[in-house]
Amino acid sequence: MAKAMLIDVSKCTGCRACQVACKAWNDLPGEVTTCLGYYDNPPDLSPNTWNRIAFYEIEREGGQVAWLFRSIRCMHCTDAPCVRVCPTGALYKDPLGFTAYDESKCNGCGYCTQFCPFHIPRLKDATVWGKGKVAKCTFCQDRVVNGLIPACAQACPTGAIEFGERDELVAEGRARVDTLKAKGYDEANLYGKNLLGGLGTMYVLTDPPDTFGLPEAPSGALAEVWQLQTLGGIGIAVGATALGLLINWLIARKQIKVEEM
Amino acid sequence: MADKRQELLMFNTTQRFVHWLHAAAFFVLMATGLMLYIPWFGNSIALGDGGHAIRLIHRIGAIAFMLVPICYLVFNPKGLFDAMKRIFTWDKDDLGWLRAAPAYYFLGDEEAMPPQDKYNTGQKLFYLTVVICMVGFIVTGLIMWFGKGTVPAWMFRWSVILHDLCAIAYAAFFLVHFYLSVMHPLMKGAINGMLFGWMPEEYVRRHHARYYEELRSKEVLGSKS
After folding, report:
1. Number of other CB atoms surrounding residue B40 within 10 Å
2. Based on the structure, what is the number of domains in chain A?
3. Which of A98, A218, B49, B214 could be joined to A117 by an S-S link, Cβ 3.0–4.6 Å?
């Protein structure tokens, strides 16, 4: 059965314990950052930051001001565009449902960084030479396959990050949305139940997805086009051409007698 | 020993140089490109550091590839403009070529084939494809090389797709190009034009009658010296 994480932003206090736990378990060095005038720190994901809390200050209808927090990390799409475009199989789907990563296979092409609709994988890249490795949240594969829960879920003090069977978390997420709606969060919603075949990271959101920088309709369409075209298109085009030429040769060499020039 | 007066210069030194530079770059780029993205073409060595090395070779090949139009323009602008003018000139004889082509290429029926220019209709189609794909390769390739993370994601994604469409067109057309230059019975000797520059006058008269007439009217038919 597919595993998933359910992140309930209404329970998140922005403490960043998950961010720190992620760094600690995955042995990722800290980053020197500067204060940019807002709370986000580091301000973006990077090869050494696979999970971070983003802070959103919004004004709801009626003038109510809210400060919202969302843990940004890999969404572990069931139908993951990054897996489709990865030419080496470094990114692959684990039987447990998450998008796993084998760094030794990565050749640094960075297609995943550009085809991911959530802009999650990040590449250490010296542009001219193209050497690099991608990095992203691994769903704590090493913990999960050994019966532990991901470090971020383990560290979360409020229960905002839950790990478990996807089906159960969907049911729980829906119940939480109903509860939030009853409490006056009219636009509460469960994000990711069906997107891209179903996300492995789902969110209970208090406000519409774009409030949290999440696309309403993330698409992997171009990744699919590329995969069909590269793997199928070249075979069909070159195969048909070669066949045509072979037929021509078989006929022409019998039919055409050319005098020496 | 062939009489030198019976040979015509079809491709000058620069044209032959850029052709073979193009060919060399094509083989390197096609081989490395296929290895990277198609499992059947040795994808197993394109993993990790091996993949990085192949991507690096692809970029070196790309530099040679980009030098093709640059060298042509710098060393023989007249030849380049002449070729461009010819491949963009189309008339009723091209329609005639399309009609006559099956009988011509399968059965060697030369009767219905209208007189052709320096490049026949098929060669013009090939040349046009090469020019369009070359622009496509270079623009999308530079975007992928230097634009990753700086250009919008949609632009990168379309670059990947268009780059590969160009590669598919190049691969298919290359087979036709290779076959017609060295394997088709009617084209015996055609390769000499690109190897040494010179073609038998008789070959030019039969395959490129319009060009032959053009040369005769300009009185440039003559000896090798």
Report:
1. 9
2. 1
3. A218
Distance of alpha carbon B225 from alpha carbon B210, whole angstroms: 24
Reported in sequence order, the residue ranges of A144-235 that DSSP labels E, i.e. its strands, are 161-165, 189-191, 201-205
List the strands of the sheet with A189-191, edge to edge: A161-165, A3-8, A201-205, A189-191
Expressed as residue numbers, the domain containing A72 is: 3-79+137-219
What are the DSSP calls for A242-258, one per residue?
A: HHHHHHHHHHHHHH---
pLDDT of residue A230: 81
A24 touching chain B per CB within 8 A? no
Please answer whether residues A204 and A175 qualify as being in contact, where contact means their C-beta atoms are separated by less than 8 angstroms: no
Reported as a pLDDT band with limits 50, 70 and 90, residue B2 is very low
Radius of gyration of chain A (CA): 24
CA-wise closest residue to A11 among A170, A224, A153: A153
Indicate which CATH number applies to the domain containing A57. Answer: 3.30.70.20
The span from the CA of A5 to the CA of A21, in Å, is 16
Q: What is the ipTM of this complex?
A: 0.90
**Alpha-carbon separation of residue A248 from A47, B136, B186 (angstroms):** 54, 30, 12
Tell me which residue of A5, A137, A6, A11 sits closest to A68, measured CA to CA: A11
Average pLDDT over residues A10-23: 96
Q: Do B168 and A105 touch (CB under 8 A)?
A: no
Q: B95 — phi, psi (to 5°)?
A: -65, -40
Asked, for residue A124, whether it belongs to a domain, the answer is: no
Residue B91, Cβ density class (10 Å: 0-12 exposed, 13-18 middle, ≥19 buried): exposed
Q: Which runs of E-coded beta strand occur in A60-157?
A: 65-72, 91-93, 99-101, 122-123, 134-135
Domain of residue B148, residue span? 4-217
The tokens for B159 are 């670059």
Lookup result for tokens 């091996």 = B50
What is the average per-residue pLDDT within B171-198? Answer: 90
**Residue pLDDT, tens place only, A65-83:** 999 999 999 999 999 999 9
With contacts defined as CB-CB under 8 Å, which chain A residues touch B188? 258, 261
Q: Give the whole-number percent of chain B exceeding pLDDT 70.
A: 95
Q: Fill in the amino acid letter for B44.
A: S
Mutate to test the interface with A, among B52, B164, B170 (most CBs of A within 10 A): B52
Whether the Cβ atoms of residue B159 and residue B143 lie closer than 8 Å to each other = yes
Rounded CA gap, B131 and B88, in Å?
11
**A129: which chain B residues are within 8 Å (Cβ-Cβ)?**
56
CB B98 within 8 A of CB B122: no
User: Is residue B186 in a domain?
Assistant: yes
Which tokens sit at B104? 């011509």
